[in-house]
């Protein structure tokens, strides 16, 4: 699908071969705060998830894609979640796995591709994301793609015994 191909990366569907990659991401406690995870995932559960990943976004209300380089290296994941067909909106989540792959435009290009796909192929009217107030990198990433900060949720996330504030950003197709 040409829609999901960028200049340096492309977005692709999950494959059974992604088991180890997803298992590593889902069990990396350093990103549990942004994924709202509190327990590890077994390889068995991830295998079950991968078996169901072919289902349509309209059925499962989410779409998870791998951010891949053109030399077939999985760099990260990007998701649409809480897909709401009636109200024509979805949430967006993104993670570039390795620190050395960050700040090179990978996330920006992936987000741009997903926004285009969401508006032009899925017919969505709006996208939103939730970002910790302290996550300056994500604030910049989403702001640079046209998302607007529309609110602050006070004491929204409990992390290591302390509450953190979380922004909500929104992008509306006009």
TrEMBL record:
<protein>
    <submittedName>
        <fullName>GNAT family protein</fullName>
        <ecNumber>2.-.-.-</ecNumber>
    </submittedName>
</protein>
<dbReference type="InterPro" id="IPR016181">
    <property type="entry name" value="Acyl_CoA_acyltransferase"/>
</dbReference>
<dbReference type="InterPro" id="IPR000182">
    <property type="entry name" value="GNAT_dom"/>
</dbReference>
<dbReference type="Pfam" id="PF13302">
    <property type="entry name" value="Acetyltransf_3"/>
</dbReference>
<dbReference type="GO" id="GO:0016740">
    <property type="term" value="F:transferase activity"/>
</dbReference>
<feature type="domain" description="N-acetyltransferase">
    <location>
        <begin position="9"/>
        <end position="172"/>
    </location>
</feature>
<keyword id="KW-0808">Transferase</keyword>
């Amino acid at each position: 699908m040409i829609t999901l191909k960028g200049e340096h990366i492309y977005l692709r569907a999950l494959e059974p071969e992604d088991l180890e990659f997803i298992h590593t991401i889902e069990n990396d406690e350093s990103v549990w705060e942004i994924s709202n995870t509190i327990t590890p995932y077994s390889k068995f559960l991830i295998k079950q998830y991968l078996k169901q990943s072919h289902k349509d976004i309209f059925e499962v209300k989410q779409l998870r894609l791998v951010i891949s380089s053109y030399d077939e290296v999985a760099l990260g994941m990007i998701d649409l979640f809480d897909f709401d067909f009636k109200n024509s909106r979805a949430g967006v989540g993104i993670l570039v796995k390795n620190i050395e792959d960050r700040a090179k435009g990978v996330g920006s290009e992936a987000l741009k591709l997903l926004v285009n796909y969401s508006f032009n192929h899925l017919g969505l009217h709006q996208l939103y994301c939730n970002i910790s107030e302290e996550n300056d990198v994500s604030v910049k990433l989403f702001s640079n793609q046209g998302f607007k900060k529309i609110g602050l949720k006070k004491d929204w996330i409990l992390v290591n015994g302390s509450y953190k504030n979380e922004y909500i950003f929104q992008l509306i197709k006009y």
